[in-house]
Write a structure and sequence with these properties.
single chain; alpha/beta; Rossmann fold; seven-stranded parallel β-sheet; two-stranded parallel sheet; globular; binds nicotinamide-adenine-dinucleotide; binds thymidine-5'-diphospho-beta-D-xylose; dTDP_Gluc_deHydtase; EC 4.2.1.46; dTDP-glucose 4,6-dehydratase activity; NAD(P)-bd_dom; NAD
């Protein structure tokens, strides 16, 4: 199995999940080690994985690695909305050209491909109702989600036009260990652990469907084992919370006063709410979440960041400096 983006947050958790629960796979990782990639996220499994430091846009390298694999699981992407608003170019390159490069190699060599995507391709929903389904029309808002939508379209077209054996999944917001400190939950946890204050965009009313990374990765394995070729599966916990509510729980779990945070200017074009209807993956493939208690999941995640300062501390100052630049 070739895992692209295996040194990132979800990819590294996926590699560990695979080795533990699906030992029949020999796992290789292809990762460019951008600012978001971290080899130490693979430290617990280092001896069991072949690591290739390289770019998914490098057609020669991709061709060789795809030729030597049976299954390709494609996580590699530029993943942060705020960065995409500031400089969309790497998003177009990695997310669109990178996916194209992989698809061409998969087409040449006739391999099984799974494409990891996001609920953000469907745009956003009002606060008071509605859900995305696999047939919702694409309506991306940010440069990030527009490039993910483009990559999904390429995968669908390569299935239909060339008969490539691909599946797709569009997951809601993930949380868990090894998530970069630029993202909402780890940013706030590590701000507090460093003695600083959390930063809430706007009024904090935006709603996300927080899904544990291990539930996401278990769903991907179900799709690999039993999913129908050409199909898209939505993944999400069903646990929708406003950002203000999540922040309130983080503050409480860390023993902070409820008002110990700063309101900062809102993200331009900020999507209001995401919510996935997961009937298809539940009924067709029998997927169930194991992490059903967000408060307990957040407490465990806080413990992980508390115990693994060595992992995030080297990233923190540069991340907050980048946020200051983005706001300038
Ligand atoms: P991440 O930013 O933590 O990791 C991305 C990884 O991809 C990094 O290791 C990086 O070095 C690598 N990468 C980037 N460009 C590359 C390139 N050109 N060549 C090779 N490697 C490259 O991202 P993540 O949060 O783990 O997200 C992984 C995937 O899941 C992405 O496709 C993202 O769109 C999708 N997704 C994420 C979430 C979420 O909540 N984080 C939710 C749904 C879907
Ligand atoms: O400091 C912050 N304060 C804040 O209020 C940050 C970083 C974020 N936010 C808000 C913006 C969002 O409403 O929190 C929410 C979550 O923000 P992010 O962690 O940046 O995630 P989001 O924009 O929802 O996108 C995530 O989920 C879908 C991932 O980053 C994407 O890769 C994935 O596709």
């Amino acid at each position: 199995m070739l895992v692209t983006g295996g040194a990132g947050f979800i990819g590294a958790n996926f590699v560990a999940h695979t080795l533990e629960n699906h030992p029949r796979y020999e796992v290789e990782v292809l990762d460019a080690l951008t600012y978001a990639g971290n080899r130490s996220s693979l430290a617990p499994v280092a001896g069991a994985v072949a690591f290739h430091h390289g770019d998914i846009c490098d057609a020669e390298l991709v061709d060789r690695l795809v030729a030597g694999s049976d299954v390709i699981v494609h996580f590699a992407a530029e993943s942060h909305v705020d960065n995409s608003l500031h400089d969309p170019a790497p998003f177009v390159r990695s997310n669109v050209l990178g996916t194209f490069t992989l698809l061409e190699a998969v087409r040449r060599h006739g391999k099984r491909f799974h494409h990891i995507s996001t609920d953000e391709v469907y745009g956003h929903l009002p606060l008071d109702g509605g859900k995305f389904t696999e047939t919702t029309a694409y309506d991306p808002s940010s440069p990030y989600s527009a490039t993910k939508a483009s990559s999904d379209m390429l995968v669908r077209a390569w299935v239909r036009s060339y008969g490539v054996a691909a599946t797709l999944s569009n997951c809601a917001n993930n949380y868990g260990p090894y998530q970069h400190v630029e993202k909402f939950i780890p940013r706030q946890i590590t701000n507090i652990l460093e003695g600083g204050r959390p930063k809430l965009y706007g009024a904090g009313l935006n709603v996300r469907e927080w899904t544990h990374v291990d539930d996401h990765n278990a769903a991907v394995h179900l799709i690999l084992d039993k999913g129908r070729i050409g199909e898209t599966y939505l993944i999400g916990s069903g646990d929708e919370r406003s950002n203000a509510e999540v922040l309130g729980t983080v503050l409480e779990l860390l023993g902070q006063p409820a008002d110990a945070f700063d309101h900062v200017p809102d993200r331009p074009g900020h999507d209001l709410r995401y919510s996935n209807d997961t009937t298809k993956i539940r009924t067709e493939l029998g997927w169930r979440t194991r992490y059903d208690d967000l408060r307990a999941g957040l407490a465990a995640t806080i413990d992980w960041y508390r115990e693994n300062e060595w992992w995030w501390q080297p990233l923190k100052a540069a991340t907050e400096e980048r946020y200051r630049e983005l706001r300038r």
